[in-house]
Amino acid sequence: ASVLFLRACLALLALPIYLLSFLGIWEPFCRKIFFPFFLERFSAVHEKKTKKQKQELFRNLPDFTSPSGELRLLEIGTGCGTNFQFYSPGCKVTCTDINPNFQQSLSRSMNKNQHVHYERFLVAAGEDLHQVPSGSVDAVVCTLVLCSVNSVNATLKEALRVLRPGGAFYFLEHVAADHSSWKYFWQQIYYPTWKLVFAGCCLTREIWKNLEEANFSELNIQHISVTLPWTPIQPHIIGYAVK
Questions:
Q1: Where are the alpha helices (DSSP H) in 58-151?
Q2: Which residues are in the Methyltransferase type domain (predicted)?
Q3: Domains and CATH numbers, the chain
Q4: Would you put residue 18 in left (φ > 0), alpha (ψ -120 to 50) or beta?
Q5: What CA–CA distances, in Å, run from 109 to 47, 113, 118, 147?
Q6: Please, which of 25, 127, 142, 164 could form a disulfide with 154 given CB 3.0 to 4.6 Å?
Q7: Which helix (H) or strand (E) holds 97?
Q8: Confidence band (pLDDT; 50, 70, 90) for 180?
Q9: How far is residue 235 from each of residues 101, 151, 176, 179, measured CA to CA in Å?
Q10: 3-state secondary structure string, 114-136?
Q11: Does the pTM of the predicted model rise above 0.90?
């Protein structure tokens, strides 16, 4: 009852956004203007908090170079391109995102990280990467994306399909807190309004379970807490899985 009451209070505070959503105005505005603006600034903050963890995560990326000597990488939900700095020099990157409105920030990131070869940008959802041939990439990267896809399982299935045997899936995602914690209590309260405001971002997904149930031959996963005060997205998982 307390969760429902506090959800209603939060919805009242966000009533203008709910009205814009009802009129069909909020979603296109969010996708084209608000979310790209917000994500670029949030990514800068998140990057400072997770830089060491990402450096450690991508340290073994060269180990998955194909026998031909090339490292072909596909990133699901590239957004502003905050991961480019961690990629191996000379690797060939295919960028994908369901939202094509990140051009300016993405271009800035590409210009800063010219050690990477950018092959193409595809407007595609994580659940449907049909433009990418099966078994054609050595690594797939997905950070802060599985919270907002329509289907986590379908996205992981596509990642497995495009990976060559022995390739790796790298991830860093915020997840549901422990169910007995106050963090989870507040995640439940924020959930409906947060999802509306932030382009479908879900606060209570237990993504580690989806990874455990996917058909990876090896899963390396760690639960961490990222210091993001006054936000409900502090619990994270980080790691990589091998096809």
A1: 103-112
A2: 74-171
A3: 1-242 (3.40.50.150)
A4: alpha
A5: 13, 6, 11, 23
A6: 127
A7: strand 92-97
A8: very high
A9: 28, 20, 7, 12
A10: CCCEEEEEEECCCCCCCCCCCCC
A11: yes
